[in-house]
Amino acid sequence: MSDGHSTYKPTTGIGRWFDTRLPLPRLVHSSFIVYPVPRNLNYAYTFGGILTIMLASQIISGVVLAMHYAPDTGLAFNSVETITRDVNSGWLLRSLHANGASFFFIAVYIHICRGLYYGSYKSPREFLWVLGCTNLLVMMATAFIGYVLPWGQMSFWGATVITSFFSAIPVVGDWIQHLLLGGFGVSNPTLNRFFALHYLLPFLLVGVVTLHIWALHVVGQNNPTGIEVKSKTDVVDFTPYATVKDAVGIVAFLFFFAYFVFYLPNFLGHPDNYTVANPLKTPAHIVPEWYFLPFYAILRAITFNVGPIDSKLGGVLAMFSSIAVLFLVPWLDSSKVRSAVYRPWYRVFFWIFVANALFLGWLGSQPAEGTYVTMSQLATFYYFAFFLIVMPLLGLIETPRPLPRSITEAVLEKNASRSKADTHD
Amino acid sequence: MTNPRKPERRAAELASPVEAFASVEVDVSSLMPGTSVVLQWRGKPVVVRHRTRQEMEDGEAASLAVLKDPIARNANLPADAPATDANRTIPGQKALLVMVQVCTHLGCIPLGQDGDFGGWLCPCHGSQYDSAGRIRKGPAPENMAVPVFQFVSDTRIRIG
Is B105 assigned a catalytic role? Predict the structure, then answer.
């Protein structure tokens, strides 16, 4: 995609001096100014920019929160309350950070669905996709660990349940769990190491995000038609076209985010986490944060033994597999056509998949009994069937709609039909 | 003086804040039938339950064939001892049940005297245990653990 040679020409003496020693402005110029992007990108493509902003926001609010937080089981809960009530603007920092995690996940799930819809994982973007899945995994680990830090009841019991997953692993499971916790149960050593990791992982995320963007700039962006860029008329410069479009997306997203930060700061949280952690009492209904609910429902759906795998290990395996299967998507989809726009059947299965994932999320918030268990099992089946049955088979039997010859042709065709429909013309 | 760099020594240091409370004692003389006392051992709750007549009858009535986990999980008995009611309780005092009250699924604390089997019900994922703490229904794989314990006098039990 990138031509290999740069058109950057420093205009000042100091610019030339700098350029021959460390060509950082040249890198920015070729990556974010004249970088060619497909001319038909829609607003679904602004979520990469939104995610970058959310990551930066989380790191900044998180670093300041860490200056006021005390990672000790005797102090943690009260230090978070002190931040909310006494620290200057602490209420804002905490609300930004806690809601920021939720909005980070809203953005990442839309970003992933965008990739699944337009086939952004297909050759040559497999590694770009795998790096993105790695980002999701690091984000999930960071979010889970961060939720433990306020040391409320949900923090404590969430940590107990999630670290117990590892005890399901044969032979080494108990050892791993003991190492994670630093003791027999969730206790002060656990909180200390979780705090250290919660500070470390976001910077690891910055590293993988950098690789993700690098890989994107090597292979170039996919677009709603799924057709590769073929000529200069297919692309526009990143600045101002993509920069301005991204900015509009970011501002709209931040409006939505700010509404929660200022008017519904606790809407996405759980009241039980305003009770200090009690190792001797489990809350009546423990549920993870909303963004983990679909995976939680998959965990609980496995209530039966499968051969030598008991239900506990089976549930844990199913839950981890639900993320692991995303890594394999580039090799599971057999279709030659990327975009769902030209795949009539894939589009149907895709939207069922989205509805099913939301349904799993709802099931995850319900008690694990009666018909909820059966429904979770059916929904879990579809979740995996979409990746393991629909994706490999559909590409072989589906007849795609005819593809336009180029992005330019697709855009002009669309504009032509639009002006024809316009009666004032 | 052991070498502080030895790995087993380091493992002990990691767990030292909890291992410091290696054993706890409880006097069971005032424990009436139908009541329980909960102690903290290794940071986890250990229940001593004085079972009612009904609970004992229910516990004995369950045959090994209906149990999801047929192993006693009693640290005072051989590892393959069957999960009979007698193997779950104190020898000669079948009314008393000593047990780590932690669900063997994902570590939540089950609620006592609840569920379909007159024992414990885990609020997290719905595992149900009978009056001898044996898993009967739900995702938990094993019976709740009976810890190492001994009588230090006629009425005092030391756990751990």
Answer: no
